[in-house]
Design brief:
seven-stranded parallel β-sheet, binds 2-amino-2-deoxy-6-O-phosphono-alpha-D-glucopyranose, about 35% helix, three-stranded antiparallel β-sheet, Rossmann fold, single chain, alpha/beta, 7 helices
Length: about 240
């Protein structure tokens, strides 16, 4: 288990951005799994800025997102597809063929899950997977209680996120919202994982994830068992860890 603690948010964003760029420079055919949210927004923009100044070869790179919101328009600003496009994918000139995302709407989400997972597998699987950490310990949309052996599926989002998306998209209460996500088993199959957490509000869950037992109550605790996972924190997120 490799834990890297940096001083502040600025150092955190820069380090994570360079980890991704380093992966691509080492492997121009890298399959890169991204994650949306407050944790990763800045680092995506840093990668985009560095690329603009010092372009590197991304012509063979594949990018995918670990999860997606279901039953909202794909163009909705809170859809992972649109967030990743706006924050990074367009800036790198990544084509639609290089960008694998599940649909936000479907008549058959089970089939959509299989197609999404297969598309990643066909490209050889993730070389690197970036993950944010839910305050309840979720990874992607794998909420507490999700099975460790689970594969890509549609599950629920946490209550606060669902309420925000419902409001922003004017989704009536009788229309189900959810999260389509790679399962914990798929995530664990990534060759390398970067678990990213910054800020004081993550300090409690960071401690539980690393110092507590491996349990489905805290999905991210499974990462204790990954052979090549780097945990990157700022001092605030790491603040409750034992020295
Ligand atoms: C959402 C996403 C997750 C992400 C998490 C972290 O729930 N589905 O993939 O890891 O948010 O969010 P934040 O970085 O905003 O704390």
């Amino acid at each position: 288990m490799k834990i890297t603690i940096v001083k502040d948010e600025e150092a955190f964003d820069a380090l994570a951005a360079w980890r991704v760029i380093g992966e691509i420079l080492n492997n121009p055919k890298a399959v890169v799994g991204l994650s949306t949210g407050r944790t990763t927004k800045n680092l995506h923009e840093i990668i985009a800025g560095i690329y603009k100044q010092y372009p590197f070869d991304v012509s063979q790179v594949t990018i995918f997102g670990v999860d997606e919101v279901t039953n909202v328009p794909r163009e909705y600003a809170g859809a992972c597809y649109t967030m990743l496009k706006n924050e990074l994918v367009d800036a790198l000139g990544i084509t639609e063929k290089q960008f694998i995302m599940p649909p936000t709407t479907s008549d058959d989400f089970n089939a959509a899950c299989r197609t999404f997972q297969k598309a990643i597998e066909t490209r050889g699987g993730a070389d690197i997977q970036l993950l944010g950490l839910g305050e309840n310990g979720h990874l992607g949309f794998n909420q507490p209680g999700s099975p460790f052996e689970g594969e890509t599926w549609v599950t629920s989002m946490d209550e606060a996120l669902e309420a925000r998306i419902r409001k922003e998209t004017n989704t009536p209460s009788d229309k189900e919202l959810g999260g389509l996500t790679l399962g914990l088993k798929n995530i664990m199959q990534s060759r390398k994982i970067l678990l990213l957490a910054k800020g004081e509000r993550k300090a409690d869950i960071v401690k539980q994830m690393l110092e507590g037992p491996v349990t489905t109550d805290i999905p991210a605790s499974i990462l204790q068992l990954h052979p090549n996972c780097e945990f990157i924190f700022d001092e605030e997120a790491a603040g409750k860890l034992k020295q």
